[in-house]
Amino acid sequence: MMHNPKKEFRMPKTFYITTPIYYPSDKLHIGHSYTTVAADVMARFKRLTGYDVHFLTGTDEHGQKIERRATEAGEDPQVFVDGIVMWIKELWRILDISYDDFIRTTEPRHKLSVQKIFQKFYDQGDIYKAKYEGWYCTPCESFLNERQLKENKCPDCGRPVELVAEESYFFRMSRYAARLLEHIENHPEFIQPASRKNEMINNFLRPGLEDLCVSRTTFRWGIPVPFDEQHVIYVWLDALSNYITALGYFSEDDAQFLRFWPADVQLIGKEIVRFHTIYWPIFLMALGVALPKKVFGHGWLLLDDGKMSKSKGNVIDPTILAERYGSDAIRYFLLREIPFGADGSFSEEALLQRHNFDLANDLGNLLNRTLAMLGKYFQGKVPSPAGEEAGDRALREAAAVLPSKITELMDELQFSNALAELWKFIGLANKYIDDVAPWALAREGQQERLATVLYNLLESIRIISVLLLPVMPRTPEKIWMQLGIADQPALHNWQSILEFGLLPAGVQTAPGEVLFPRLELTGEGEAPVRQATKKEQDAAGKRASR
Length: 546
Ligand code: MSP
Hints:
This protein is of the alpha/beta class. It has a domain at about 350-515: Isoleucyl-tRNA Synthetase, Domain 1 (Orthogonal Bundle), CATH 1.10.730. It is built from 20 helices and 17 strands. The chain has helices at about 5-10, 30-50, 65-70, 75-95, 110-125, 175-185, 195-205, 235-240, 240-245, 255-260, 275-285, 320-325, 325-335, 350-380, 390-410, 415-435, 440-445, 445-470, 475-485, 535-545, and strands at about 15-20, 50-60, 100-105, 125-135, 140-145, 160-170, 190, 210-215, 215, 225, 230-235, 265-270, 295-300, 300-305, 345, 520, 530. A 6-stranded parallel beta sheet has the order 3-2-1-12-13-7, sandwiched between helices. Strands 5-4-6-8 form a 4-stranded antiparallel beta sheet, covered by helices on one side. Strands 9-11-10 form a 3-stranded antiparallel beta sheet. The longest helix is centred in the middle third of the chain and has 31 residues, at about 350-380. It is elongated. It starts with a helix and ends with a helix.
């Protein structure tokens, strides 16, 4: 048969993932980072496994809340948000967030498209003018009726609400409610976890969906309604549209929209599920655009004594945590500690424990012990393996199924379970050392067997390092340096871990810094102290004696 290269070329599959766009605040805490870190891990995992990924995040800059904050700060809203957005980008840099696009709702590309969306709704009769009289929660930017209030407060954030009476445009949600219900029921994967789906159906869709107010007139900081400049577009209609305006929807260049929409996963926190699984899909239906494949509402990160707030200070400031522990440890902690979807508590002690047990003891020691033995018995050179015994087989078999197990769990956004699987394998490798006792083999002069055991360990570490990449983007490089394979990308990719035994014999390893030196908390509210390395103690000694 003729060779047909064209036929063999396959376009990589696309994967579009989004986070909510953040309200500009210089008080973003570790809870806020949770959504973005999770999305980043997913984006990195999909890139690693060969997808053409588009990962979007950004900022939600309009609305009454931001206008008020700017006024309090005595600044023009645009100047006010510009400064904060720079800070948010810096925070994402510190946490190694690898977004492909960052949309700001104050950008012309977004504003123009939102105006066209609003116009289309109006032209096709989805929007009508009436008077709104009811409650408004400014922190959540949400309209609430009497029935929804909890003890006269906002049911979502518990803060006081304001009475609003103004002329507004309304969107006829009722037109689309039945279609949405049908879609939700026919697509069980659309709203995840399932409990959130039931809540939406029972609390909002079944009792009958009210029309939504989609414009405001009592403040100016928003996108003007194109045909009625007295009104600014309701900030949630403005904000939700970002997921398609960022792709060029309704612009001259909509190539990205055609390529990436519908989104594969939209990650959000549980308090904004209603906006994303009721209003957003209805807006999309009205536009005649496909709905996202999956909207996942994760749980909250809480402190032991309840909600996070800026007054709780240091403990929850992600920049301080990153400085103390490194961003890899924080990312690992966030995704390992709490099953994705559930609420979980955050404490620095728990972070420290994960750091010391999982990272320093399990992972760090596996590398140290292996390289130390390799140095002692083989001058640090990767030996050639020979033969296979039962213990070797168990390790190799576990390595062989690991990539597919982890892929399955990641596709279901079960980050914590995926990491538990990886750590099970790390545990197995550590146990393999204890069971085989390479030092005894050395004593008995069983060189060949010793070579096989150390080779299997090195190869296991290489496989582990690649699987760590999505969650801990910095650590694998350090491991490769020590394994002596940093300059061999063919040994760092997904393909290379599907086969056990690719690590070439003869490579010179280079043991280096301890990956995660154990840390201790010195006292309440104090920063943990890293146990100084020998080198640092020596240096300190020199400084002191100067
Ligand atoms: N601007 C809206 C989203 C508009 S999307 C079209 C918004 N912004 S936010 O800045 O308040 O929240 C951003 C993300 O942080 C949300 O996913 C929210 O759930 C998440 N979190 C904020 N505090 C959190 C915790 N304490 N724990 C977990 N996630 C939390 O909402």
